[in-house]
User: Fold this.
Amino acid sequence: MPGGIEPCAKSRFKAADVDVNSLATSSREDSRRDASLARQIWLHVRLLSDYFAQYAKVRISYRGDFFISTAASITATIFSLLFVVVLFRRVQSLAGWRFEEVTFLYGFSLIPYGFFNVLSLNLYEFGNTYIMEGKFDRILLRPVSSLFQVLFETFRIESFQEVVTGSCVLIWSAERLGIHWTFSDTVLLLFWAVCGGIIYVSFFLLLSTVSFWFEDRIGVHPPFWNVIAFGRYPLSIYSSYIQFILSWIIPFGFASFYPSVHLLGRAEFVQYARIVPLIAAACLTISITAWNFGTRHYSSTGS
Assistant:
């Protein structure tokens, strides 16, 4: 009997040794993957910092052009806000929304829109600059994500004023409405602003991928760019058809309106605010998938 038990014990020990070795190998592979991912993230963070620093130096070196562009951007933002002021001189409320509530919504909408505008320049000019002029070939030759390069090669620095202006309007409106901010409210506001910026970037990135198949200098962006303004006003002033489009087809309502409803403490539409991160994640996933598909089927200009 003892002689019959020993081979089984040895086989169990051998099996255990194999399991331990495989676990150790798997652990080392996981560690290498984690280290590689960390290096890639750090590399892209450094590249983003270098891209921005270099572009800012070049942009600010032409001081006259930079200050004129910034002044023009501020003027356009102020005139858009003055439209709200003029509107409420004629009406007491807008579909049950008071003046301060509308300016609160308007101020919040400028924050994700400002973040988006800082990064959107190349998306707007992607078809013309990268596809028709053949600059996308240069992008593909570099050992860095093509999407990362397109988004962060240039910036619209003057659009940071929209973030600042929107924040000022938001704070003024909140004080008039008697809203007292807690730390968690501030974090939530910033989180939703980032989600809103992701929604804008993702949607226009998706539109940019059309240029892989249909070469056009203007692209399909301009009509949709104007739709952003619809999200700066309460969706309840529009028909149910428009509300559906601005929520589930062109999801700009999730970038500004639904988060504002929650921050204002209004009961209507409040349930939609909870799925803003999911909408942002879905939009980003769809747009990146379309981008990767487009790059795989991209044919060089040959020039």
